[in-house]
Amino acid sequence: MKPTVNKISKSDLKTSIDYHLRCSLCKETPTKDYRDLFLSTAFSLRDRMAEKILHTEQRYQASQTKRVYYLSLEFLIGRLMGNNLHNLGMFDVCREFMAEAGIDIEEVREQENDPGLGNGGLGRLAACFLDSMATLDIAGFGYGIHYEYGLFKQEIDNGYQREKPDNWLADLNPWEFKRTDEKCIIPIKGRIEHFQDRDGEYNPMWLDWNFIVGIPFDIPVVGYGGKTVNWLRLYGAGSSADFDIQIFNEGDYFRAVEQKVESETITKMLYPLDTIMSGRELRLVQEYFLVACTLKDIIRRYMKNNENFDRFPDQVAIQMNDTHPSLAVAELMRLLVDEYALPWGHAWEITQQTLAYTNHTVLAEALEKWPAALLERIIPRHLQIIYEINRQFLEKIAARYPNDVDLLQRMSLIEEGESKQVRMAHLALVGSHSVNGVSSLHTEILKQDNFSDFYALWPERFVNVTNGITQRRWLLGANPRLAELITDTIGDSWITDLSQLRRLEPHADQTVFMDEFRDIKRANKEDLSKIISDTLWLSIDPDSLFDIHIKRIHEYKRQLLKIMHIVHEYLQIIRGEKTPTVAKTFIFAGKAAPGYWVAKQIIKLIHNVGQVINQDRRVRDALKVVFLPDYSVSLAEKIIPAADLSEQISMAGQEASGTGNMKFMLNGALTVGTLDGANVEMLEEAGADNIFIFGLKAEEITDMIKKKNYHPVEYYRLFPEIRRVLDAFRDNTFCPDEQGIFQWIYHRMMNNEDSYFHLPDFSPYIQVQDQIEAEYLDPVNWTKKAILNVARSGKFSSDRAISDYNRLIWNKNAQS
Ligand code: 26W
After folding, report:
1. How do beta strands 160-164 and 153-157 pair?
2. CATH code, 593
3. If you measure from the C-alpha of residue 378 to the centroid of ligand 1, how many angstroms do you get, rounded to a whole number?
4. Whose CA is nearest to atom 1 of ligand 1?
5. N or C: which end of the chain has fewer CB atoms below 10 A?
6. pLDDT tens digits for 403-438?
């Protein structure tokens, strides 16, 4: 599909940019100021998208199409200029226009702040999904939070991570529309009065609440080809003039100002945790705030064309991105029962039929639980509703499985104990018609393990939707050289139908194509080498094997296993046991949660190992270790196209899917990975010859845990190569100036503590790395495999994932 609807001439674009320079920014034209050029170009694009939002809305209205609302506390959208230009079909025109004026479009793009409104995988997935929904002409909208501060900026000081605030809104955000006219009022705190209605029915009233004002900011989301423009709505918290006046009138000026500050604090910052529940009150308020603003808005829109709720589930689908927005279950019930006076049973049916839940993690520490006492203080009416949902649910379970108290306890929405806790995953499960995992392995684990009781009860609710990524950002935008080669070879239909890449297979052993493919990888590696030398003053050989491990730093992702391998290679070389045949550059990037001590130590370890290796003349031409600071979407876009080898080595059973793995495959890197998450499906697609799989399988690990038969000390005793790596951590080889700082690694293993199974996977890992080295020595063979990876990556498009959601979850009833 060629983007024809958006033909724009260079002179029209120039007129528009000049107009915004003069009228929106009050600056002289022409200009060579990159910031001003970025802003005026963005405004020009926004103009076009604004028109298209209105047209798209007219179309949706006319067809009365079902709307999908994607609720997420995170949207890691990345920079928008490049993506918007591509999807509007204006990229080339814009680049040429700028080039003629002596301006490099890439420099202009660099001006854009990268909005870090997410932690990692879950937030980036949400952003890919928005792109795919718009491209597939689905009426799908994102709802999230307009954080004033995104994920912290990472700086490195003597190898240690330091966090700096990310004030991404300090400059103008040219993409968003602030819609003060659509602000809403959200009740919070207060108390419940237990009334009865005229018929003697229990009719509780939520009284004396405070309120927060939700102010929407809309960011256009343009689909490829520019036909459909949806939007992402982000709510910021504020307080209203009226509300202040009320308190002002009571004469309490200080309290009024305090309230205002308190309200605005709610959307101040994104919680920088991606696996550990914070348990902070403010986070709960954020979750509630998002859900309450969103549901008000959804109902307002629905009510434009409807008088009652009968058609609600046919007109509205709400997808909850993990449990973070799972209070939607209670809030929708509250709105239907308390505000629209629907009978409980009817409201419950509507709620269940409308909501669906995606689970993104099996890590126990990430499963959200909130103290009932906290809910009672913040949202007392919701707690009541949750108790009532639970009462009715447990009644059904007790009727179906009599005398099974254990089961009731396991399935309850409430965990009893010292203090009662609400299990948010159970709330989401019970209140939805669908629950999905994000890769086939992950969905199986949910069924068999975490949610097995629920699976036994409602097998039909469990669905798998393997994650995907948008090829518009991750190939067309990030890797223009490869995108062009592909388009020259098979045409451009891959941009909206990634399965077309299969047509590259016949070219995988054609010399001309292979040479071009290899030249492109080499050029991308040169670009990355330049970035590395500019940021770290480190010179990198673009002909070395680029072996890349980039993602959040977490023990289960096993950056430590990678470092152990690097240390192993280093020791082998300096002790003369190995003559290196392939020069290797190991590249890391990723942020650690600020309170996660081990993750931060791992960052320090990477730096120190790097310092020793990079300065050691004996391995000067063989090994380099690089840590690129402040990982972000825009940095990923620069790193991934340059990868030879993609490290996806999490402990099997822990990584729900992974999406970085897919980005690397699409960009012609080979993967070394465990049978975890979507790696399993990448193996199926690529074929065993084209991916390097090693290590324990998920069920083997579960089995070892169950039988308690993993003892790290035994591995230390049995395997000399493990011993000397761990000894090097103990012996200060990598911390001569800060003695003892890495001993914790050694001591952990000696205490038989290694929850992430580094040692059993170590030998298989170094073996597979030896195989990789041997294969890299044969560039023809390597290139062929890389091409086959690209050709077979079609399944991992977010277009496929979104079609799956649409068919299996959002329009399930329409189909049957
Ligand atoms: C409450 C604290 C918290 C915050 C975020 C707990 C858990 C999370 C997320 C669920 C973590 C996350 O990003 N999960 C990742 O989701 C990706 C998209 O589905 C998957 O590809 C990754 O495997 C998974 O780790």
Report:
1. antiparallel
2. 3.40.50.2000
3. 26
4. 277
5. C
6. 999 999 999 999 999 999 999 999 999 999 999 999
